# Entry
Amino acid sequence: RTAADAFAAVRDRVGGAVFHETARVISHTPDEHPTGYGTILIVSGGTSDQRVSEEAAVTGEVMGNRIERLYDVGVAGLHRLLAERLRLEQARVIVVVAGMEGALPSVVAGLVDKPVIAVPTSIGYGVAEGGQSALHAMLSSCANGITVTNIDNGYGAACAAIRAIQAANLMYKEN
# Structure
């Protein structure tokens, strides 16, 4: 995670470096880069979660995975999420980024039989407490199989999603 002024210093020293402003990430993909193993769907509750969502998306892309984005489908407008049910079912792994009350990962995990990686964000007001409310809600979810990262950890969520895909592929090769 970085800023534009840091990129200015890197750009002169690393040819091909790219600054992803929304994600606040600098990436550099060498000529031979990793090949991913499946589609990771990045889902976010609201537009205010986009920075963390994009951090996860860019990380997944740099690691060679196909990334799909499904943004602004939080539980306050549940019809938007339900209209995308087919996309949820087609993904290999789903990263769900949400702030406020952190309910979205539980809803998504209740709809699919895929690994769900939940990322609480520091977005919110009132008792959101810098993401603590979302974190506690995600850790307390009654939907089974949710992995929860630290607050605002889009990078860690993408890494967990990639490992889940790799593990599933190894399992299929062995059988």
